[in-house]
Inverse folding.
């Protein structure tokens, strides 16, 4: 008979075959408890959440530094006498300069001053010490104009990409994205990829917004990439619509997925044959009785939910759909019989009609 897919018996029978590569799990409360342990990739477990600012500003290579030198009296190295061109002054501003690759800055009459790894106050003390005896009681002010060594690179579907400085108090992922004007699109369609050194992780933006533990502190040199990647599932079988369906939400459960499909087709669907096909995490699949020769590789699983029972509706409410899942509703046995009778009728009726027409003309 023509069909949109395998029957419930064929799916269960295929799993029982010695050559089967998938496992069929009858969904009950015990299975749902195991599925609740399924863990998605996350930032907090991969990177930790340390990184809050200490209040100390440590200079690094590339930081743009401004230095102002004050003298106690006019007529010194960095000041002009009263009545001279400009009216006299006790201060001098050194042009902004970056901390060089060897970790120093240049100060006239003081030479190279070590800056990298020091605070502005420590650099100030070093300059004053170097100028002692040369300038008139020098007092120095050191400030970081552009903290280029403490930046995060932001790219992708954001309002404005670029290098964003990290505040002294520290900054979290959403802080950095907000400084760049936020993101483009809906949160449930966007993912944030964080690269730190050789490690990269990708987490839905919706998760970061809803779970404070995932809104971790960034570190200097991190790269944040926001990408649009709508989550979808695919529907086949005896549902009102067969198509690829976007979540349009952060999370989706099976009852919500079936509702978006318009429900089951009364004349065809087997309510006891609602299946979800998925490549499952090895740890979860093993607890559900699956075996696989491959280590740390997703295992093909088929979950069966019986909607003939009232409990099945509650279980469908607890059963979470993931990106890439296939929701399949098998045809009922009566539906197969009905298709057979319709096919038989379409074959017999034309022959019977032709015989009657031939009899009419002969007689």
């Amino acid at each position: 008979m023509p069909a949109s897919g395998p029957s419930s018996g064929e799916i269960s029978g295929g799993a029982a075959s010695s050559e089967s590569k998938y496992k069929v799990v009858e969904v009950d409360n015990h299975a749902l408890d195991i599925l609740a342990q399924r863990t998605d990739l996350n930032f907090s477990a991969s990177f930790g959440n340390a990184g809050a600012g200490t209040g100390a500003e440590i200079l690094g290579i590339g930081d743009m530094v401004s230095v102002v030198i004050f003298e106690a009296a006019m007529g010194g190295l960095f000041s002009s006498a009263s009545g001279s061109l400009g009216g006299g002054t006790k201060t001098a501003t050194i042009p902004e300069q970056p901390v060089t690759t060897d970790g120093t800055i240049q100060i006239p009459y003081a030479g190279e001053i070590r800056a990298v790894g020091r605070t502005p106050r420590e650099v100030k003390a070093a300059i004053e010490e170097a100028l002692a005896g040369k300038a008139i009681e020098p007092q120095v002010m050191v400030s970081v104009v552009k903290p280029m060594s403490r930046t995060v690179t932001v790219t992708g579907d954001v309002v404005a990409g670029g290098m964003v400085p990290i505040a002294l108090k520290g900054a979290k992922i959403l802080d950095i994205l907000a400084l760049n004007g936020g993101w483009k699109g809906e949160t449930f369609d966007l993912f944030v990829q964080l690269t730190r050194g050789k490690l990269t992780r990708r987490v839905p933006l919706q998760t970061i917004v809803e779970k404070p533990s995932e809104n971790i502190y960034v570190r200097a040199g991190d790269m944040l990439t926001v990408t649009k990647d709508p989550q979808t599932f695919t529907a086949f079988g005896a549902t009102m619509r067969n198509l690829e369906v976007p979540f349009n939400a952060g999370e989706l459960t099976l009852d919500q997925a079936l509702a978006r499909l318009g429900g089951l087709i009364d004349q065809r669907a087997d309510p006891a044959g609602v299946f979800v096909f998925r490549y499952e995490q090895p740890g979860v699949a093993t607890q559900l009785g699956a075996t696989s020769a491959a280590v740390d590789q997703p295992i093909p699983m088929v979950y069966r939910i019986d909607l003939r029972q009232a409990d099945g509706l509650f279980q469908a409410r607890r059963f979470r759909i993931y990106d890439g899942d296939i929701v399949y509703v098998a045809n009922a046995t009566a539906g197969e019989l009905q298709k057979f009778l319709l096919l038989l009728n379409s074959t017999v009726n034309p022959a019977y009609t032709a015989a009657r027409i031939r009899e009419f003309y002969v007689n």
